[in-house]
Amino acid sequence: MSNTVFTYGSLMCAEIMSAVCGYPLVGEPSMVDGFRRLSVTGEVYPGMIPRPGSEVSGILYRGISGAALARLDAFEGVYYRRQGVSVFTPPEGTLQAYCYVFRPQFYHLLGDEPWDFETFMKTGKARFESLFGATYRATEG
């Protein structure tokens, strides 16, 4: 059985998502309503929390195996909870997907600043890979 996963942070980068899952993936632009993406203080990755009236753009990946989903669970760790969300993707419309949402007990770790993917790719990706590369590559296979 395959799963669909909405990503809104470092996993929007297909290279990182593919390394964590253990096989090549191509995503598609999508959006989730009712959430907000914020930077985690002192980190290069974000958290997503419920926020009525807000929306988060991201990347939707399809065909995620059960084994890859288990690797994603391990990669995301204790700060995040996998849950179902409604995702809008053109031209298909709305569908259900998994997403890793920041757990309420860790909200105090979130800053006030929104997180930006382009900034991550320019300045944060290299730092992310130096800090976490061994972790997510260790989940392969």
Automatic annotation (TrEMBL):
<dbReference type="GO" id="GO:0016740">
    <property type="term" value="F:transferase activity"/>
</dbReference>
<keyword id="KW-1133">Transmembrane helix</keyword>
<keyword id="KW-0808">Transferase</keyword>
<keyword id="KW-0472">Membrane</keyword>
<dbReference type="Pfam" id="PF06094">
    <property type="entry name" value="GGACT"/>
</dbReference>
<feature type="domain" description="Gamma-glutamylcyclotransferase AIG2-like">
    <location>
        <begin position="5"/>
        <end position="105"/>
    </location>
</feature>
<dbReference type="InterPro" id="IPR036568">
    <property type="entry name" value="GGCT-like_sf"/>
</dbReference>
<keyword id="KW-0812">Transmembrane</keyword>
<protein>
    <recommendedName>
        <fullName>Putative gamma-glutamylcyclotransferase</fullName>
    </recommendedName>
</protein>
<dbReference type="InterPro" id="IPR013024">
    <property type="entry name" value="GGCT-like"/>
</dbReference>
<dbReference type="InterPro" id="IPR045038">
    <property type="entry name" value="AIG2-like"/>
</dbReference>
<feature type="transmembrane region" description="Helical">
    <location>
        <begin position="6"/>
        <end position="26"/>
    </location>
</feature>
<dbReference type="InterPro" id="IPR009288">
    <property type="entry name" value="AIG2-like_dom"/>
</dbReference>
